[in-house]
Amino acid sequence: MGSTTKRLCDALLNADNIDSYFDNNADHIDIGVDLSEFLEEKLKESGLTCAELFARSSINPSYGYQLLSGLRSPARDTAVQLALGLALDVDDTQKLLRMAKLGALYPRDRRDSIILFAISNGFTLPQTNELLFSHSMNGLSK
Question: What is the 3-state secondary structure (H, E, C) of the chain?
């Protein structure tokens, strides 16, 4: 169990009531914002158009619009592609993955470590794929 997860578990087990636990730990737990709302918010913050996001993320526009509207849920690599397209930081990328009910990027996993390094250094999707390929790993987009 990671340190944040352990801390959250301890906080939950020692909380006087569930509402105080939610209030005190809102940054680390699902607070009810849905994935499509999160993506729309980050898209607005980025100043990108949908077409620009889909191009930067190498996502088919019709599929991308389904993701933004909440009609479809992304696969893990697709969620990471969106994070890279939006130039999200590591915390927001992990939040996106959590909201999509997908596994967080795990630094003990070699491929995930490469992706985390790329995100933390502001790499684009092509740069991230190149880094993955140079370490004999599958890229994020087909």
Answer: CCHHHHHHHHHHHHCCCHHHHHHHCHHHCCCCCCHHHHHHHHHHHHCCCHHHHHHHHCCCHHHHHHHHHCCCCCCHHHHHHHHHHCCCCHHHHHHHHHHCCCCCCCCCCHHHHHHHHHHHCCCCHHHHHHHHHHCCCCCCCC
Higher pLDDT, 54 or 29: 54
Biggest CA–CA distance in the chain, Å, is 51
68-73 long-range contacts (CB < 8 A, ≥24 apart) are 68/36, 68/39, 68/40, 68/43, 69/36, 70/34, 70/35, 70/36, 73/35, 73/100, 73/101
Assessment of whether the complete model's pTM goes beyond 0.85: no
Q: How does pLDDT run across 38-94, given as a tens digit for each residue?
A: 999 999 999 999 999 999 999 999 999 999 999 999 999 999 999 999 999 999 999
